[in-house]
Design brief:
Layout lengths: L6 E6 L7 E4 L5 E4 L3 E4 L5 H12 L8 E7 L10
Antiparallel strand pairs: 1-2, 1-5, 3-4
Amino acid sequence: MIGPEDVLDISVWKEPEVSRVVPVRPDGRISLPLINDVQAAGLSPEQLAAMVSEKLRKFLNEPKVTVIVTAINSQRVFVVG
């Protein structure tokens, strides 16, 4: 699951203007061109890709969206001892 402070690579096939590497803000949302803020925390990359694709359909013809988690910063483990 995606969490706050993770870094996501969101690619829209043949649309470099919309594709971005974005951090998940502490409120769990990301910002993308055309669709503004989207809730990302608590979703899997596949669920987020489907949501972004659905929102982009208002602006693009059949967008193909891929979400890759490039840095996991929300899951921290501390070992003491």
